[in-house]
Specification:
The complex is a heterodimer. Chain A is mainly α. Chain A contains five helices and no strands. In chain A, about 55% of the residues lie in helices and about 0% in strands.
């Protein structure tokens, strides 16, 4: 059984070190590919490389994606906000399907979702005494 | 008839007018400030300056006439479709609720909801853009299924009054809706 805790473990240390070595190696490989002229690489026998154009294009793509991602996330947030005329601002399935427990005398009532009409009466009509509380 | 000055959510001043026609009939009108001359001239000047800049760059005089055209059409569209001068709510206890929006060009939009469909008028809070605002809304019910809200109709959408104004309207509406409950009760007893 594996516990879900963020504590440091020997396996995690090994994963971390492998990732560190892998990323350093990948970065060195990228630098070699980008800077070393093609003739030198061909003379070593390494001929099957992607075009050097991509050494500049991929970082640019990544940065533009990052910038658009910020704006996109903000936009998705705003689109998923419920509009003012939606039922989701009033209630949801849990509130509609909750069981009504009988409240005993002298006991704290059970926790439940209160309808918006009751809440409004308590907030805005309470001092005038017009509210009808069941 | 009573009138009070309140503030909208954005900070502008609005006026609330309350009229009581009878014990079960009341009208609430929220008036927004009219289109200011300074904002109109600021918009016009900026559009025309941009058009003049384009004209200097491109030496094409069509840009200037296009700018004039755009300004005129834009103003007419804005006054007719966007700028709401007054929103009013007429509550007739036994009949229903009527909402009217009057635009700056004189156009009026009216919606009527009959009382059997109205469950309650409440002040709800929701996220709007980057704020949480209070707004008044009518909860509609299906006449065949009275325990359950079928639809939410927000009121005063373009003037967006703040909570103090909404509480006034809410309390008045609740007085009228209370009468409906007692009259229903006496009707079921007979």
């Amino acid at each position: 059984m594996v516990e879900n805790s963020p504590a440091p473990l020997p396996e995690r240390a090994i994963y971390g070190f492998v990732l560190f070595l892998g990323s350093q190696f990948g970065f060195m490989l990228y630098l070699v590919w980008a800077y070393v002229p093609e003739s030198w690489l061909f003379s070593l026998g390494l001929t099957y490389w992607p075009q050097k154009y991509w050494a500049v294009a991929l970082p640019v793509y990544l940065l533009v994606t990052l910038g658009i991602g910020y704006i996109l996330l903000f936009g998705i947030n705003m689109m998923s906000t419920a509009p003012l005329n939606s039922m989701h601002t009033i209630t949801d399935n849990f509130a509609k399907n909750q069981q009504q427990k009988k409240s005993e005398e002298d006991a704290i009532p059970a926790l439940r979702d209160i309808t918006i009409s009751e809440v409004n009466q308590m907030f805005f009509l309470a001092d005038k005494g017009i509210c009808n509380r069941n | 008839m009573e009138e009070g000055m309140y503030r909208a959510v954005c900070g502008g001043r609005i006026a609330l007018q309350r009229r009581q026609y009878s014990a079960s009939c009341r009208e609430f009108s929220v008036r927004c400030p009219r289109l200011q001359l300074r904002s109109l001239s600021a918009a016009t000047c900026s559009v025309w300056l941009a058009a003049y800049g384009l004209f200097v760059l491109s030496q094409n005089s069509m840009v200037l006439s296009a700018a004039i055209f755009i300004t005129l059409i834009g103003l007419i569209v804005y006054l007719h479709f966007v700028k709401i001068d007054q929103e009013s709510l007429l509550v007739i206890g036994s009949l229903g609720i009527q909402m009217t929006s009057s635009y700056a060009s004189g156009k009026e939009n009216t919606t009527f909801i009959e009382m059997s469909q109205v469950k309650d008028v409440v002040i709800n809070e929701a996220i709007y853009m980057q704020k949480v605002i209070y707004y008044l809304c009518i909860l509609l019910q299906d006449p065949q299924e009275p325990h359950g809200v079928s639809e939410v109709v927000p009121l005063f959408q373009s003037s967006k009054p703040r909570l103090d104004c909404l509480v006034e309207v809410y309390r008045s509406c609740q007085e009228i809706l209370e009468q409906r409950k007692t009259s229903d009760f006496t009707r079921t007893l007979n």
